[in-house]
Amino acid sequence: MKIGLDVAQTSAERAGCAWYADALARALVELGRPQGHAFVLYHQFGDWINGEPGHGTRLTGKGITMPLLHTLPVPARALWRAIEAGTADLPDAPDVVIASSFHAPRTPGAKLVYVVHDLVFWTHPQYATDATRLVCQRELGQALGRAAAFLFVSESTRRDFESLFPGWLAESGTPHAIASGASRWPAVESPTPRAPDAPWLMVGSLEPRKNHLTALAAYEMYYASSEHPRPLHIIGGRGWMSDEVHARIDLIAARGWPVVYRGYLDDRELRTAYRDSFALLQPSWHEGFGLPVLEAFSQGLPVIAADAASLPEVAGDAAILCPPENPPAWSIAMLELDRDPTAHARLGAAGLTRANDYSWQKTARTVLDLITKLS
């Protein structure tokens, strides 16, 4: 079977969905090529057109092609419009195409498998820009008519889908599966001691859904109450409606309190940040999966996470869970974890165990099993 993979998002500054597309592509190729499958990587996909597609995921070897790796925006747009109109074929003629970027273009001659990362653009529209909300609603609507199968990144996301489209999966008979993510890095063998000044860490684009304001309010309370307060490092690209967060960071830093916005980090720098930190704060209002939780677990880093959406499902009993709307609860959890080395070590070990419950190899097997049923 020849499998098309949408890796368009990997050509831009990467967030969770792009890392999912990258890691899934690598795992599918590793598992699928020995079974005789071939792969086509699409760096321009549907309406997701990149200015510089060559920055995206690159995989080479027998049975792998990347026909749009160097295709510039104007010809890429023209090609996908022609494919949509039925006057052009999909490059390299795959049998199935896995769409990971929320886009659901026509895929003539191939069965479309659509990945649902989250449905926040419908369930929590206040956490999506108007442009994103409209595009994602349109594309999911198209997927309902075009997809031969669906992949959900968590049971929580599948439940959101069922709440929006009650009974649709069963009535339509559309195959589907839970294809969770995993840490992109191997798990460390055991948690390592953290430096006395190791910082609290928050990872995620600065946008309303990530709830940086609760983390910052909790940090202020923690800092005022702790005898030896740790710094707070915030990592992530500058997202939309982030001015208030940056203003709050600047205000706290102006007092001499150690809150540092480090911006977007590449893969190597981010892994180092996890290894050098004290604990991860993940107070998101909503996550389709919450990849930073598993990334932290894999590096032996304890986690305090929101008790909302998919985060309890992913974290299991390996994290401290707090309401995302309650900064005092977060502050108390931070103080208790800071003062109790035994609890810190216990959570680090529990996180490692939890991280090992997830792997990209398992996810790739799930996806290949689903695709096989479509042939």
TrEMBL record:
The keyword Transferase applies. Pfam families: Glyco_transf_4, Glycos_transf_1. Keywords: Transferase. Residues 201-351 form the Glycosyl transferase family domain. InterPro entries: Glyco_trans_1 (IPR001296), Glyco_trans_4-like_N (IPR028098). Residues 16-164 form the Glycosyltransferase subfamily 4-like N-terminal domain. Gene3D superfamilies: Glycogen Phosphorylase B (3.40.50.2000). It comes from the Bacteria. PANTHER family: GLYCOSYLTRANSFERASE WBBK-RELATED. This is Glycosyltransferase family 1 protein.
